[in-house]
């Protein structure tokens, strides 16, 4: 059995702890390694097939990540240091959650939406394959039989009843997909929120007995629990219609294999589509296809693949690794399965900066990145280069590993300052430089230009100013509708292939535009504005990025200084400071925003003992789908509050209270639209 061991070192030369991957079938653990080692932990990855192997190899791990291997009461009792068990996926039936809770071990999973689209698609595919008898037709045709009668009988599906066991996120996506086929949809679920969802989708709520006896097609999409184990046994299957088709895209043991074989062989039901078997082969070391279900012509079996897409696999791996790192860093997990007393998961004395992986970049990024717009000197009333260099050095020394800049920040001056700072500080290979192009200087303003020739020239100019051979993340600053998006994407892909840039990003792009970029090149990141007062990206851009595994570098976390708490009604802005034209800083809105800041500051102080600045940045980081929050600074002291952002998170009630404060105070909200350069004209 091969074991892959790589040690990551913290500031004192030793790893902060060890995270043990019990098993995986992804081919490698590179995604996990980037996250885990980037956060200062050692990674040990194995291929355990039994609980005894988990104990033997993971006994002294600080954290455990599991795919198929059982992490039961015996393993949990044997763990000497474990503080977190993170599951690759949503179901946690392989983990003894009660035993973990008693020992103070946090268990996490991935929320259902990581693969909801894939599972829903797969369920419908299995349903149609079983209904239309595609496997039988395919097999017979390959053997020289060309007869439509091979699949006889097949019934028209319109007007029939499709039942769904449970009605969670995936089941709702299934209902949306099957409705155009003209079926009546029934579901068995009892929670009030689920009942409301069924009402909204015109799904008929029924009892379990009605579901079993009345469904022509029945899709199982429920979790495996003591109540659902062997729920579909001999007695249940005998009550189904002889023309019924059973689809299971949940856990295999919900259906008793022996009973299902009997039902299919004897005509109690017409067919089945299974994405899992009762004893999953992936959990066995030397599996042989001996299950008699595999010999029946009226059953379609897939190897627990419903969740699979390249996007979903990458996402669930990142979720598991990041959850393990979060808990071991003293942070609450995003997706907890159990409730563990806080004392059992005590934070370290110095909360570590959270890290995240960005596709196509070889090192992890700190979740707070240094924004350098003001260091360019334009639109912020000037800048002090020496102070800017000291600020960059301070950020790097504090653990910030991502610096964001752009040509537009002083027509390249910000890039020059960063180049100088890194040359003086060293450690270029440990820093992610994210810069932006696609704007052309015209006089004292810019126009958008993302043409191929211009992108090539701008990258070469940025490399020179940054004093580097490569740019980690090159982003198109604003979409240029005068240039086909595909032309821009091909140029960036060619620059990537040439080694000039490592990853491709966009800023201020719509979903449609990003889809077109992705049709030609690998899109690693998007950069939308996001802060407490500008939340538009949460409704479209960020959810899309989360689904498509595109990292998000959100800008404007402090809303141009408004959320630092240092601005009041008498504040004035000198020279070309853009706040002189920002509608938030002008009457009558300015007074509304200042009142909101006062109330938010009081809330942060009373609820968490934190500053408004820490609350504002933490709010951004706690939004699902946010990878990095960019934090603008011009002096080292501007970064002092960084430590107050780490080591805690906002609870759901606080998020509701914060939204209420903003709604009550900002009666005439306005977004960041004023910053957009117009198409093909000088600003």
Describe the secondary-structure layout.
Layout lengths: L3 E3 L11 E4 L8 H9 L3 E4 L5 H8 L4 E4 L6 H6 L5 E4 L9 H6 L3 E3 L7 H16 L2 H9 L18 E5 L3 H10 L5 E5 L3 H9 L3 E2 L2 H7 L2 E4 L13 H5 L6 E4 L8 H9 L5 E4 L24 E3 L8 H19 L26 E2 L8 E2 L1 E4 L13 H13 L4 E3 L8 H13 L6 E6 L1 E4 L2 E4 L3 H15 L4 E6 L8 H13 L3 E7 L3 H8 L4 E5 L13 H7 L3 E4 L34 H20 L3 H10 L6 E5 L9 H4 L6 H14 L18
Parallel strand pairs: 2-3, 2-4, 4-5, 5-6, 7-8, 7-10, 8-9, 10-11, 11-12, 12-13, 16-17, 16-25, 17-18, 18-21, 21-22, 22-23, 23-24, 24-25
Antiparallel strand pairs: 1-3, 14-15, 19-20
Helix pairs in contact: 1-12, 5-7, 13-14, 15-16, 16-17, 19-20, 19-22
Explained architecture:
The chain is α/β, with parallel strands linked by helices and 683 residues long. The strands form 5 sheets. An 8-stranded parallel beta barrel has the order 16-17-18-21-22-23-24-25, surrounded by 5 helices. The longest helix is centred in the last third of the chain and has 20 residues, at 589-608. The radius of gyration is 28 Å and the shape is globular. The protein starts with a strand and ends in an 18-residue tail after the last helix. Residues 1-12 and 343-349 have low confidence and may be disordered.
Which features does this protein show?
683 residues, eight-stranded parallel barrel, 22 helices, 15% strand
């Amino acid at each position: 059995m091969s074991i892959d061991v790589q040690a990551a070192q913290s500031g004192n030369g030793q790893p902060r702890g060890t995270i043990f991957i019990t098993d995986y079938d992804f081919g490698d653990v590179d995604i996990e390694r980037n996250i885990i080692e980037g956060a200062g932990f050692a990674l040990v990855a194995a291929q355990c097939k039994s609980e005894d192997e988990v104990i033997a190899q993971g006994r002294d791990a600080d954290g455990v990540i599991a795919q198929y291997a059982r992490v039961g009461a015996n393993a949990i009792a044997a763990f000497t240091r474990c503080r977190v068990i993170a599951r690759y996926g949503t179901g946690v039936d392989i983990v003894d959650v009660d035993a973990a809770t008693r020992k103070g071990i946090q268990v996490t999973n991935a929320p259902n939406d990581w693969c909801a689209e894939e599972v829903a698609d797969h369920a419908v595919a299995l349903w149609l394959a079983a209904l239309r008898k595609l496997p039988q037709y395919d097999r017979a045709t390959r053997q020289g039989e060309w007869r439509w009668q091979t699949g006889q009988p097949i019934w028209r599906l319109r007007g029939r009843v499709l039942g769904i066991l449970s009605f969670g996120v995936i089941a709702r996506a299934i209902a949306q997909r099957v409705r155009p086929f003209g079926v009546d949809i029934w579901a068995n679920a009892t929670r009030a929120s689920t009942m409301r969802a069924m009402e909204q989708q015109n799904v008929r709520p029924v009892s379990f007995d009605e579901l079993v006896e009345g469904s022509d097609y029945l899709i199982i999409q429920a979790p495996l629990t003591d109540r659902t184990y062997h729920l579909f046994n001999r007695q249940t299957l005998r009550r189904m219609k002889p023309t019924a088709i059973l689809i299971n895209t949940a856990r295999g043991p919900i259906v008793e294999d022996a009973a299902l074989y009997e039902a299919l062989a004897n005509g109690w039901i017409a067919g089945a589509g299974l994405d899992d078997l009762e004893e999953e082969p992936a959990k066995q070391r030397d599996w042989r296809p001996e299950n008699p279900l595999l010999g029946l012509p009226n059953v379609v079996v897939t190897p627990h693949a419903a969740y699979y897409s390249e996007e979903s696999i990458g996402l669930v791996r990142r979720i598991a690794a990041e959850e393990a790192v979060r808990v071991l860093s003293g942070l609450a997990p995003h997706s907890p399965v159990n409730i563990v007393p806080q004392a059992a998961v005590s934070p370290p004395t110095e909360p570590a900066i959270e890290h995240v992986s960005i596709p196509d970049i070889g090192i992890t990024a700190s979740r707070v990145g240094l924004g350098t717009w003001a260091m360019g000197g334009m639109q912020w009333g000037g800048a002090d280069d020496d102070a800017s260099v000291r600020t960059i050095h301070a950020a790097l020394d504090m653990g910030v590993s991502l610096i964001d800049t752009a040509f537009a920040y002083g027509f390249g001056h910000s890039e020059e300052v960063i180049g100088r700072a890194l040359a003086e500080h060293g450690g270029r290979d440990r820093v992610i430089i994210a810069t932006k192009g696609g704007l052309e200087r015209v006089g004292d303003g810019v126009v958008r230009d993302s043409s191929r020739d211009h992108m090539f020239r701008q990258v070469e100019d940025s490399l020179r100013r940054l004093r580097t051979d490569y740019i980690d993340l090159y982003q198109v600053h604003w979409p240029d509708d005068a240039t086909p998006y595909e032309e821009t994407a091909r140029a960036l892909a060619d620059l990537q292939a040439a080694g000039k840039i490592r990853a491709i990003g966009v800023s201020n792009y719509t979903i449609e535009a990003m889809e077109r970029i992705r049709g030609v090149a690998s899109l690693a990141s998007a950069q939308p504005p996001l802060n407490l007062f500008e939340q538009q990206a949460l409704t479209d851009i960020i959810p899309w990025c989360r689904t498509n595994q595109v990292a998000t570098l959100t800008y404007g976390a402090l809303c141009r200084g408004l959320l630092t708490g240092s601005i009041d009604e008498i504040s004035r802005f000198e020279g070309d400071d853009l706040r002189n034209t920002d509608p938030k800083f002008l009457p009558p809105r300015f007074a509304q925003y200042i009142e909101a800041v006062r109330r938010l500051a009081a809330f942060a102080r009373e609820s968490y003992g934190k500053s408004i600045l820490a609350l504002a940045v933490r709010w951004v980081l706690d939004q699902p789908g946010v990878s990095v929050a960019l934090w603008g600074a011009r002096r080292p002291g501007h970064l002092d509050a960084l430590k107050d952002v780490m080591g805690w998170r906002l609870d759901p009630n606080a998020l509701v209270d914060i939204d209420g404060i903003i709604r009550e105070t900002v009666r005439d909200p306005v977004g960041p639209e004023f910053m957009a350069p117009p198409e093909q004209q000088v600003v």
